[in-house]
Amino acid sequence: MIKKYYQIKQIELGTMQNYAYLISYNNHKAILIDPGWDYAKVIDILNNLELKAILLTHGHFDHCTAVPDLQQKFNVPVYISRFEPDLYRPKISLIDIDDEEELVFDNLIVKCLHTPGHTPGSQCFLIDHNLFTGDTLFLDGCGRWDLPFSSKSDIKDSIQKLKTLSDETIIYPGHNYHELASDNLRHQKIVNPCFQENF
Question: 104-126, pLDDT tens digit by residue?
Fold first, then answer.
């Protein structure tokens, strides 16, 4: 088995406490998850890394406002769930991905998990035991279901799907709504009311 070499950098951006994630690997390459808001800050954080792709957990503006400029500058593919409606798709070239699809970047493997509810095409990205949940699952909470195309029943099903992952899975949410920046799934299954039967 090839050992994976990567680092995770959590970046807070914008006025809505968004988290973007920079995954650097093989010393000089990187992918970005949900780079919203501050294009200049993202460029500074990339520094001399070679950007290879952008992954979107969903298409709400606060998760992707920097994407058009980044795509234009770096000419990289931008991946989104094939289930995301046109209303939430950035007006750029996109590559649709499916549930359980794996994206391979050299020795970095990203598994895409379709988790509808917040939007029809919401998805999470799993790298080893690291789960980037966007607005599907927060620490001690979950995303809104009162928006156009949202569904509480779908988000409940999606959270149950995530519940089957390893207890060692580390949750990296899409917003800074908690005193912790991340947490393991074992603890969240205890303290997060969205995991409870009466949710």
Answer: 999 999 999 999 999 999 999 99
Contact 19, 174 (CB under 8 A): yes
Q: How far apart are CA 110 and CA 124, in angstroms?
A: 10
CATH superfamily, domain at 6-195 = Ribonuclease Z/Hydroxyacylglutathione hydrolase-like (3.60.15.10)
**Do 114 and 99 meet the contact criterion of CB atoms below 8 Å apart?**
yes
Task: Locate 29 and state its tokens.
Answer: 């390459």
Number of H helices, E strands in the chain: 4, 14
Half-sphere exposure (Cβ direction) of 176: Cα atoms closer than 13 Å: 14
Contacts of 176 (CB under 8 A, 6+ apart): 12, 17, 18, 19
Q: For residue 187, which phi and psi values (nearest 5 degrees)?
A: -70, -40
Tokens of 191: 């303290």
pTM of the model: 0.96
Contact 23, 108 (CB under 8 A): yes
CA-closest candidate to residue 11, choices 30, 26, 29: 30
Domain boundaries, the chain: 6-195
CB atoms within 10 A of CB 107: 13
